[in-house]
Amino acid sequence: MAKIDVVTVIEESIKVQQAWEKFGGSFTKGLSQALLHADIHNACKIANTWPDEWQSALELYEGKIKPTEKTEDGNED
Q: Whole-model pTM above 0.90?
């Protein structure tokens, strides 16, 4: 996957942070908090360390994909 540039991180970080906070598990909720407090240098590190998660969060935010539903036993449908 291509490196995510600074301008893209600036444009997308609020959407990604909100999607991670709303739809994420404990790991991506932790990333959402890190992203919320990160300077641009560290936000770029987050985006480029987890590019697949970043892209999924954007797609969730934009409604292109639906969040995975959890069943009563905690497993994904």
A: no
